Amino acid sequence: MASSTKLSFTLFFAFSMFLQGTLGEVICETLPTNLCSFAIASSGKRCVLENYRNQEGKLEYTCKTSEVVVERIAGYIESDQCVNACGVDRSFVGISSDAFLAPQFTASLCSPACYQNCPNIVDLYFNLAAGEGVYLPAVCEKQKSNPRRAMLALLSSGGGAAPGPVATDSADFVADAPAPSFSDFVADAPAPAPAFF
After folding, report:
1. What is the SS3 assignment for 69?
2. At what angle do helices 147-156 and 136-145 cross, to 10 degrees?
3. Residue 134, SS3?
4. Transmembrane region positions (predicted)?
């Protein structure tokens, strides 16, 4: 009888965590670490996975609320489908543009399965790219025709990076509009956010 009570309690706890996420009440600090990365708290701030050393010196992970605010999305946990389509990993620690250095990541991010269907992940990397002075839609356009040239543009854009963009009206970006020329990869001004939301 004690084991059935324990099982019932475990199922109740698991169901309540699932129900909390589906109802839109997302608190980063209460998320399991395997759902933390690419989640957005109900407050509109991104959740980030962080690591620390416990008292025994072992590396452990925890989910924290970052200061990065996402316009138009709150209380959202990214789907496994988008995580897979975009080539990201829920075990990413922190938020970084380092992923752009892997050509296969840029190819996954720019793929139609990700770029057209996963606005949360695209928005995150759009802003990270802009922080490096790179316009993500142009990189994705270049990725279609010449992946090596797109990677070269990313690598050469470091240094004089423009500040990250501030979310603007979604009408400022049209997905079917012609991409800027190769020389427009380095941003002189913040780029508009993708119109996914």
Report:
1. strand
2. 150
3. strand
4. none
Q: Shortest CA distance to 155 belongs to which of 102, 193, 109, 86?
A: 102
Query: Is position 196 within any domain?
Result: no
Distance, C-alpha 166 to centroid of its chain? 16
List, in sequence order, every beta strand (DSSP E) within the chain: 45-53, 59-69
Structure tokens at 196: 């996914």
| pLDDT over 60 (residue 45) | yes
- Which pTM does this prediction carry? 0.65
Q: How many domains does the chain have?
A: 2
My answer on whether 53 and 96 are in the same domain is no
**Which residue range is the domain that position 28 belongs to?**
2-69
State residue 17 phi and psi, 5-degree precision.
-65, -40
pLDDT tens string 152-196: 555 555 533 333 333 333 333 333 333 333 333 333 333 444 544
